[in-house]
Amino acid sequence: MRSAAFALLALLGFVGPAAANFTGPTAPANWTVVNTGSLIGGSPTLGSATFSTTQLMMTGSNSISPSGLSPGCSGGFFQTLGPCQLQVTINTPGTYSFSWSYLSSDDAGPGGDPFGVIVDSTRIQLSDPGGADAQSGTASFAASSSFGWFVNCSDCIGGSATVTISQFALAAAIPEPETYALIIAGVMGLAARRAGRRRERA
């Protein structure tokens, strides 16, 4: 019965974080890294993501302007979340907490390279487009299906942004009330079957 009670606590999310840093269920192999959109112009360089067990480093895309100051991303526009974007995502529900450090090398400042999170397919910008080249913060987001980060090169010229994610943790998702009832019923059924088997042996 003691093991059944522990299993119930684990399923209800009371046993603590599901992962700390990029290990276990959030190890690097469990994340999807993609570059969206089409870079144009000279020497296009796609964004990249580099994991260690304690941090993630993301570098956005960049290109040489095809003509003057026109965007190096097809469909891109300065200070707008456009199509050319590095995305690092995972399909796991839960509450994600982390620290972030952002640095823009764009000659026009951070407005050309927005950074943020993707929570259940919705993008939320964290970097301040009118702020300093170097920015940082801490954040926490609850995701019901998927989570990730993006570095968007809105103009994709003049330099890229680099973001370091550290102090990362994922807390297990708390089940919905209907799920609690199903879990409790299952644990009680298991306990009743075990008690019945013990009576049969006696």
Structure description:
There is one protein chain. This protein has helices at 2-11, 177-201; strands spanning 17-20, 32-36, 42-45, 48-51, 55-59, 62-64, 85-90, 94-104, 115-119, 122-125, 134-143, 147-152, 161-171. By secondary structure, it is of the alpha+beta class. It has 2 domains: 1-16 and 174-202; 17-171, Jelly Rolls, CATH 2.60.120. The strands form 3 sheets. Strands 1, 4, 5, 8, 11 and 13 form a 6-stranded antiparallel beta sheet that branches. The longest helix has 25 residues, at 177-201.
Features of this protein?
six-stranded antiparallel sheet; five-stranded antiparallel sheet; 39% strand; 2 helices; 202 residues; alpha+beta; disordered N terminus; Jelly Rolls; 2 domains; elongated
What's a concise summary of this model?
The protein is α+β, with helices and mostly antiparallel strands and 202 residues long.
What is the element layout, followed by pairings?
Layout: H1 2-11, E1 17-20, E2 32-36, E3 42-45, E4 48-51, E5 55-59, E6 62-64, E7 85-90, E8 94-104, E9 115-119, E10 122-125, E11 134-143, E12 147-152, E13 161-171, H2 177-201
Antiparallel strand pairs: 1-13, 2-7, 3-6, 4-5, 5-13, 7-12, 8-11, 8-13, 9-10, 9-12
Helix pairs in contact: 1-2
CATH topology of the largest domain: Jelly Rolls
Uncertain runs: 2-16
- Summed over residues and divided by their number, the pLDDT gives a mean of 85
Q: What global shape is seen?
A: elongated
The proportion of residues in beta strands is: 35-45%
Number of strands: 13
Order of helices and strands: HEEEEEEEEEEEEEH
Distance between the termini: 18 Å
Count of separate structural domains: 2
The CATH first-level class of the largest domain comes to Mainly Beta
The portion of residues assigned to helices is 10-25%
Rg (C-alpha, Å): 23 Å
Described by strand count, sense and barrel closure, the largest sheet is: 6 strands, antiparallel
Assign the CATH architecture of the largest domain.
Sandwich
Structure annotation, total helices: 2
Structural class estimated from helices and strands: alpha+beta
